[in-house]
Amino acid sequence: MRRWMPSLALLAISLTMSLTLVAAPRDPNLVAAVFPPWWPAERSLSAAGTAGAILRTGAWPWIVVVSGPGDKIAAVLHGAGAFFLVDPSAAGLCGAPAKLPA
Amino acid sequence: MPSDLDNLRRIAANGMIALLWFHVPFNLLIAVMLGNDWLLPGIFAVVLAGAATLAWFGSPTAPATRMTIAVAVIGIISLLVYQMHGQPWQIDTHMYYFAGLALLTAFCDWQVMLIAAGATAVQHLVLNFAYPAAIYPGGADLGRVVLHAVIVVLETTVLVWLTHRLARLFAVNDAAIAEANEAREKGHGSTRRPTRNVNNRPVLGQPCWRPAARSRPIWMRRARWWRVGRTRSAGRSVSC
């Protein structure tokens, strides 16, 4: 089994790199912000609202798709507490987008 | 002394490492030509080729090195397919996965085939859900994944069987050569020395035929002694 370990480790790294590549935002004006999962939906939405217009949430309420000016949106979202930004096409992957709270 | 199989695997590993490093600038070239992002894919290509090279430096013929190289080859092919996203030729670059599996056959190791096929399957399944455009033009298509998977399974089944048989044949061949060499060194209970080496070349410096001395008449023994003496004194050896 030990002989399989280096190749399995490289496979894991390779998958991580692939996901990193495909998750990178392609349109700087349209990003999905990933906030801490333990945050309530209202807190994530209010933090995302400081950067631009909220379009929808991702598969979970702590992933929010935001549209805004490309030169500032990343800095504002990071400042508001977002862990990282991904492409919106990768944000709703694992299920249907969560509904916005009324 | 390395066996023939080890030599073959060493040559294959050298070739694969060269192929991996060739793909680093090749991936960059494709990215620049298609106007894609080149920095991150370039770094990932270097990581894949570098990891395989590190393992290769440690031990060029170790099973772990071969399997690491296999994963790196499949990973770098996936990078190439990703670079072709949005292009009509993207689906054609999938042929490279099958070619990659065929290239890895040179290692004569069924485990290499298994990990390469597994890496191909995992890459396809994950990207089909995460970002289908990275592997297929036109979006996610589970049916297409299944079709490709069936073809890969067919190819891998035969290649696993073939590589296993090849490795066994090499082992049997090496054992037979070792046994023949051992028997030659021990004389194998006979006074007659072999006149041909393992490469079927004549062994120089020995007479081709030397029957037991007592079975020959005295005139023949003298003649024989005279002939061998002459050739030795002339600095030449009797050969077949």
Written overview of the protein:
The complex is a heterodimer of chains A (102) and B (240). Chain A has 102 residues and is of the alpha+beta class. Chain A has one domain (24-102): Alpha-Beta Plaits, CATH 3.30.70. Helices cover 34% and strands 18% of the residues of chain A. Chain A contains three helices and four strands, in the order H-E-H-E-E-H-E. Chain A has a four-stranded antiparallel beta sheet. In chain A, strand 2 (53-57) and strand 3 form a beta hairpin. Chain A is elongated and about 50 Å long. Chain B has 240 residues and is mostly helical. Chain B has two domains: 4-178, no CATH class; 202-233. In chain B, 70% of the residues lie in helices and 0% in strands. Chain B has helices at 4-34, 39-58, 63-83, 90-93, 95-104, 110-130, 142-186, 218-233. Mean pLDDT of chain B is 82; it is low at 233-240.
Strand percentage of chain A lies at: 15-25%
Our count of helices of chain B gives 8
| Span between termini of chain A | 53 Å
Derived structural class of chain B: mainly alpha
Q: How does the major sheet of chain B shape up?
A: none
Query: Which H/E pattern describes the elements of chain A?
Result: HEHEEHE
Total of domains of chain B: 2
Unreliable runs of chain A, pLDDT <50, ≥5 residues? 93-98
Q: Can you tell me the overall shape of chain B?
A: elongated
Give the end-to-end Cα distance of chain B, rounded to a whole number of Å: 29 Å
- State Rg of chain B: 28 Å
What is the radius of gyration of chain A computed over CA atoms, rounded to a whole number of angstroms?
16 Å
- Molecular shape of chain A: elongated
Sequence stretches where pLDDT stays below 50 over 5 or more residues of chain B:
233-240
Oligomer: heterodimer
